[in-house]
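Handoff note, outgoing to incoming analyst
You'll be picking up this chain. Sequence as last confirmed:
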Amino acid sequence: MKKLFAYLMPAILMFCLPAQAPAVTTIICASTTSTENSGLFNHILPVFEKKTGIKVKVVARGTGAAIEMGKRGDADVVFVHAEEQELKAVEEGFFVERSDVMYNVFVIIGPVDDPAKIKDITSAAEAFKKISASALFVSRGDNSGTHIKELSLWKKIGVEPKGQKWYLEAGQGMEKTQRIANEKRAYTLTDNGTWLATKDRDKLNMDVVFDGDPIFFNQYGVMVVNPEKHKHVKYNEAMEFVNWLVSNEGQQAIASFKDPKGNQLFYPNAQ
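Most recent structure output, in case you need it:
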């Protein structure tokens, strides 16, 4: 009898002990501060996580820093907005592929009274010229997608802003840069999604003083880290996340993200 009991004990314990929950897989997504500051991830990730059981840990950085995280293997997937840099990194073999996900637009925000008088200007280049001649400008200064766009505009008009008294480099994310510009009564370049999501929350005494130039189109893309470069990355789970982002369900989740006033902050365009 004792021998039979000893033989059956493992099976008895198996049925008596509570079942352990399956291990949860977590992937790291290096992304821009605009997607984080706007609240986009808080809106869409619960939908993905409920569907797949995969958790997504977001690390918000400027686009340049986010891409470097992926190159080092410190992230599984990168979600950013500097297409030229993204495609170059794919070509170099650091990422397996890149997919369009969504877009919004850049805008220039500034003091409500618009001291540089750029509200009636039709060209982003001309707006930047007037700001450099008569006002303060706060740059993110962090090699983000927004910073890269800003630098391309200074280059276009032949202005070297670095070191100028009217040019301040924040070295911060988008929301903090907006706050600094507000405090300094300065202008800055931001994306419309972050602006709409944060202007009331941060009580900014600023307005959109310039928008509408086609050059301000702001495309976001997603890339999976190449497992041949970093064998430890969770390639399959990262691909599942990317496939969901570009699927009808993921695109609808992005489209449904709006500010309290009903403004759409990002426009899906994976198709």
